[in-house]
Amino acid sequence: MSDALSDISRDQRRGNGYCKFFNLLADYLIKKDNDDGLLKKLIKVAKDTDDISGRGYFSGPSSLANGLEDKIKLLKNGDKNEWAKLLARVAPNDPDCFQRLKKISPFSEGLFIMVDYGCGFVNFGGELKEFLNALIDREGLKTYDADKYAVIIPKPESSEVIWLNCGRSEVDGPRKVK
């Protein structure tokens, strides 16, 4: 059993590690040439974050270093699944880093929206809130003061859906509607 203050301290250290890791990853991916010094630093930050032992109050152990070099190769080769997973992890926690990564991703021209169908509910993330706020702001209307709006968007010409994962451990791939 642990105490809440120790758990929260681990959360904070782990969160700082994640932030540093994702920003270093962005630095590394933005560079056209491979930078061995930056790669070593990135691997060290990943391992240091993974080495924070025990559960936090809100988080569990990380596995950033696990398969990192293979993931970097996939990202550098423009693998859409790997990019979608990376952007989905970064978007809720570091909007600035998310924007840096999105600019160099295969999704740089599109609106990145995450859809999480939990058990009986749905959550949206990514750029949806900012996109809708910009549409409402463009009309000169107030946001975040108890107002409600209907926003009508023309049907998109095309879209791309990438399966990220499932909250059920027994599911290891996308499932078709029956």
Describe the structure in your own words:
- With 178 residues, the chain is mainly alpha-helical.
- The protein has a domain at 4-77.
- Helix content is 46%, strand content 6%.
- It has 6 helices and 2 strands, in the order αααααββα.
- It has a two-stranded antiparallel sheet with strand order 1-2.
- Helix 1 (4-30) packs antiparallel against helix 2.
- The mean pLDDT is 92.
Give the gist of this structure:
By secondary structure, the protein is mainly alpha-helical. Helices cover 46% and strands 6% of the residues. The model has no long low-confidence stretch (mean pLDDT 92).
Topology of this structure?
Blueprint: H1 4-30, H2 36-50, H3 68-76, H4 80-90, H5 95-103, E1 113-117, E2 122-126, H6 128-138
Antiparallel strand pairs: 1-2
Helix pairs in contact: 1-2
- Distance between the amino and carboxyl termini: 44 Å
The helix content is 40-55%
Strand fraction: 5-15%
**Secondary-structure element series:** HHHHHEEH
Instruction: Please count the helical segments.
Output: 6
Apparent shape: globular
Strand count:
2
Mean pLDDT: 92
Radius of gyration (CA) equals 19 Å
Low-confidence stretches: none
Which labels suit this protein?
178 residues, mainly alpha, two-stranded antiparallel ribbon, 6 helices, 46% helix, globular
